[in-house]
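name: query_chain
kind: protein
chains: 1
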Amino acid sequence: MLNNPIISNFPKDWDFLHENNNSSGPGIEGSGFISNDPNEDFDKSSLEPSNKINFMPLKIGMINSTWKSDSRYIQIFGNQVEIIKIVGRIVNVQWTDQNNQYLIEDDTGRIMCILVRADEFSEYRTKQLKDLENGHKLVKIYGGYNPINSTQYPVISIYSIKCIQNFNESLLHDLDVMHTILKKNSQRMKNEDNRSNYIGSLSSYIAKLLSDHVKSGKGRNGFNVSEITRQCQLCPEFQNVTENHVMTCLKELEQEARVYQTIDTQTFSSSEI
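structure:
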């Protein structure tokens, strides 16, 4: 049974949390387990990166604040992280027949990390592990999320745990984390701008489609949402558009008095002559 770590929350204003470093000291390698808002339906494949990322340096609080008990993976910045790196001090150690359990702490929180023993450690490796426990040493850990034991709090399976001899390495880790945060936040804002531009382009296309229909003398009844969607999908730029996307744009155009409803709430025509 794992000891329950004391977890502190990451700063609440960092709400946008929702990528080989050289080392010194002895290294021990281990094994582990590894609304109906229309805007939500946009195809973001061309606007956002893949949702899986191989490696990311993190602070412990970033893991704690984004963890969900029913999740099979850690998701940070919208990415599923395969391998994480954390740096912190060993607060407590417990040895069991199957694994070593390390309670690790940094300035943002605490987290439980486990080193699974596939077989018995040699005398030399056992001494290395024991040496890590002396004096609450500063360590760096490479590992992966352990969903099996993460039922009450997040648990990390250790792939590698090493003692840090130079404190500057801890500072470099913090800089790596800051760089990741700034990079991902900048990417997020860029994606939001891209989505906004996409919606704007679609709105302009729909407005012209309805306006051209009126100007052609084919009547002012307009088109229903399904027909507008079908015609938008004929354009390569909007081939993945859905009726929800179209309705979002029509509501904006209606507020701007550029379109209006005709025979029912699903049919629109242009007010531009």
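note: The longest strand covers residues 79-95.
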